[in-house]
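Field reference: "sequence" (input) and "structure" (output). Example, Myosin motor domain-containing protein:
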Amino acid sequence: MNDPIYQIKLIASTKRLSFHHFFKSHQIFKQLCKMEVSSRGSTASNGFERAVWAPDSQLGYVLGDIVDIGAEMLSIKRRDNQQIIQASHDVVFPADENLEKVVDDNCSLMYLNEGTLLHNCHQRYEKKQIYTYVANILVSINPYEPQRELYSTETIASYRGKSLGQMAPHIYALTDKAYRDMRRTGEAQSLIVSGESGAGKTESQKAVLKYLCENWGKEAGPIQQRLLETNPILEAFGNAKTTRNNNSSRFGKFVEIHFNNKHLVTGGFVSHYLLEKSRICTQASNERNYHIFYQLIAGADDEMYKVFGLSSPDRFNYLKRGTLDFFVRPENEKPINKERFAAGASTSVDRIVDDAGDFANLMRCLEKCGLDRPQIMQIFGIVAAILHLGNIDFVACNDGGKEGSNLTPGSENSCGCAARLLGIDDQQLRMALTSRAMQTTRGGSKGTLYMVPLKPTEALAARDALAKAIYSRLFDWIVATINKSIPFNDSHSYIGVLDIAGFEFFTINSFEQFCINYCNEKLQNFFNERILKQEQELYEKEGLGVEKITYVDNQDCIDLFERRGTGMLDLLDEEMRLPKPLHTHFTTAVHDSNKKHFRLDAPRKSLLKEHRGMRDDDGLLVRHFAGTVCYETAQFIEKNNDALHASLEALFEASSTPLIKLLFETPQEMPATPGGSLLSTPSRAKRLVVPSVGSKFRAQLAVLLEKLSHTGTHFVRCVKPNSSMSPWCFDGSSVLSQLRCAGMGSVLRLMQNGYPSRTGFSDLYTMYASVLPPEIARLDPRLFCKCLFRVLGLDNDDFKFGMTKIFFRPAKFAEFDQLLRQDVDAMKGLVDKVKTWLHTVRWRKAQYGVWSVIKLKNKLLYRAEQVTMMQKYARGFLVRQKFLSRFAVYRKAVNLQTRGFEMKNLVSELSPTSRKAWEAEVSESEKALELLVNFCKDQNVELDRIIVDYEKGVAHVDKMISDLRGQLAADEAARLAEIERKMVEEREREEKEQQEAILKAQEVERYEAKRREMEAERVRVEAEFQKRQAEEKAREMTALAEEQEKRAREEQKRLDGLVAARLASEKGAQATMIESPAPPTIVIGSSTPSGNSSQPKRAKLDLASWKYSDLRETINTAQDADLLAACKEEFHRRLRVYNGWKQKNANDQAKEKPRAVPLAMKKKTEMNNNESTEASPVPKSYQANHPMHIAGPQRYFKVPLSIGRNLGSMRFEKSGAQYGFWYGHFNGQWIQRQIEISNNKAPVVLSAGRDDFEMCQVPLNVTQLPTLRGAEILEDDFEAMWDHVNGKKQGAMIH
């Protein structure tokens, strides 16, 4: 007994010394302190010191090691600077052991979480690898540097026909997969390219078009080239420089590449959405208007420059508000004429945009699309006319007593140039801009027309509306012209590429960002439906048994936009129908109609100072899936109005310029989209109500999503690595934010157990049907697929058979695509293998048939032997019938001989003296009877003689038996006398035993009374437990509501801070973050926390700031019972939280279940970590005279192990069921010792202090152990089992 703790407990229990006094007076305390240090080190090394990813505001995640378990946080030491950071359990993730490991598919990592995802993307980006997979989703990180080899013709050829996963991740691989899916299934495919502005969406879309046209468009002739030439045209008229991207698409487009029945490119179609018309009139200081304006000024020849009346950008109001620099490529050697530069402007180098070079390329592309020189000049003339329109200014005047406006003297020239280029009279243009026509409702068939003068502000608004209408209709016409040049009359299917503006947020956000972000909400919802919701529904339908995951659903934000009557879009349209619409009234209506909506708030709740000064009726704070954006509603009504004054429309319908006249014709004469939606605004003669911009965009978006829902979708998530557009610079925080917004975290959780690839049994069977021989063709499709997979030798863990489909694990696309892309020869080879395998199976069946025949032969031989046996018995019967009379006498003689045995038995019952006198005579009689039996067998002896001898023998035997019975009666009388004497002695012995039984019954009664006392106590505890359970349920409901409210606040704070922090980092704005107050801190000195007895009791029990090691030390040394109980409770609570964290983030391939009390003993509902651990009542007999009563009442339990209920809470091997018992010794509320006895492994013995991380961490009063009938056992029963499994009695206390 060298254990110092055991010695301390033994002496303390016998001498009644207090622990505190004994520790100060005995040298064993020093040894105990040494044990504490060593145990603390061993626990740390075996417990929670491990590499993890911890959140960081700058890097996203940093690598560190867990060094302490706090009350609500984990303490993590960073490996880069050794700083200690505090982080919640929910945002800390385990890291892979090999940090240098780089994988193509993030689903191949050991741990699937945000930390490993960000680290793998960062590692690949540093190695110039911009693409990576998350299951079947491609993540693309913009390198901000030309990658010519990555998109070369050789690279295109290398990816053609390759399975997804055979080569490095690339957009070409995903495009090739989309093409093969279209070819295999006949279903249209779509690639959805999403991401923020500047993430590389446009370049990705161009790469897709290039890959498809290079591989399958060469036979299309000029159509292939026209498809590729659409991008320069659309970029010139639809792209512009923004603060985040020098070539930002300011419209959305869905480009369809159509294929004929031979799966070759036959044409295409471009659908466009929501052109940002407000950019035509105004831009931010560091942004530009559309590229075409600068291309025209920089690239036009001298004659064109003079005809169009062009000048430097600073001379045009529509350009001078933004940056005035021209863009050039580094390799461009053709300089721009210096006279065309604005004062103080220069050139900016960009790898994509080149104003002068792009203008020359634009001219070539327009010509290839079928436009002649006059049409091209009309297009550029309209562009120049818009610039001149912007230079028309107005001054107030008095027109007949009414306030009106006139052109300023400096605007006359601009008005003349604009009118000349637009093909209208300058006086008519002047009148149309300064007045508008009104028509009375009476006075003839159409009423009387009269002109109403416009104020200067109204005239400026009419001018800007005209410029936007002309440019918008010009853009629509250009897109329609492109579609005419790439017809698809013999289309069999198509592949669509969606490139639409990504989620946008600026310091000032207006109606354009409002619509763009609404579109991104819809697309994100489509992603959730297609990838997360429908995927899980398919798993459940096919019976795959994949665990469901939760994800953030943004449907409530979409409802905020779309809800009938109270949605923001409906309220905006309703405001426009009022006589005098006001943005303040609209904003107030939105707030009033959606009070307490989580997604909506007032601008003063923003974390940016620029927004907090905004009035509530001037802005909307909307919490999108990607962050919170504050919208200024001042121009919402004007930008949502898509109508022109009737006088302006009438003027341009009579233009002498053919293109202008065409733009303002009725919609029936304009080109239409395949769905019949017209590309221009209806004329005044054909409409009753002009649809608003928002309603038209909403309808277009609905058509787009409907189209996407009927295609096979492939997602490309483009990521912007930094906000400064610097090459190969990785901003971890920004990238992580974009990955979260893209839903990659939810995809990782789903793909941890999911199957992203699948094909139907019938589809696979149909693909091989043409090469199947008749003997295989009649197989069931499911059986054929099983045969095919058998011969391919695929790992059974990589796929799973559903009800109608085969499903593949992540990162197993190579096997999947290899199976689906076989050519005819390869298919025949696989069919031959299937045939061989079937022959093998049939040969085995033939062998089984042979074995069955052999078995049948052996059975026939066995039956022949039985027939022989039957013949033998028949012959015996015939012989016995012949000698029937002699047999009868023989049987009588044998029976008589048996009576001789009766004589012998009677002799044996006689007394020894009588037996000796009769033995000789009985022996002679037996010999005579034996001789009689032998005569019967001898056929020479006559039957009559035998009968006479038999009768004599009967008489002799009867006489002998009679005499023997008389002698036996005499002997029996003597025996009874002896028995009487023995009975007297027996009665005396029984009386003695009765006294002993009474004493034993009294002992049993005492034992049963003790058992009844335990049962009564159990019933009482159960009743109290049920009462507490009801109270606890009410508390849980309250706590649940509080937790939901807390999570809503946290989600609100996260969304509010997401955009604000990025805006602050991009433009230097100051974001005022609302920090939560820090929790109270307790400073622990060199002595134990319980050493200061003068400390207030409330402060001693506040353990939130105590370290894990301080709790352990206090448990060993505390003398205060309240402090000891509080420390134990907090100690075990932290262990439970940490074990839950390990279980949640464990790798599925090596997941280890923690030991605990059997699951059947736990409460039905989840235990609250802050739940009270008040000790439940126990029998007083357990509280007195116990060597450990100072720590708490000792209770012992025994329950069976059940594999069906214990897998969630016990550590079991994956193979083989286990049966046995679980023993637990509780010291107060906490487990002290634990034993596991099972049928197929050695007993497991655990002690507190040594095995804390593996033992039950559930307090006794929150389990159902005290309420289970027969679960509680006596101390002796537990100690007997403890000794039986070689556990040391009274194991060590917590070190």
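The chain has 40 helices and 31 strands.
The mean pLDDT is 79.
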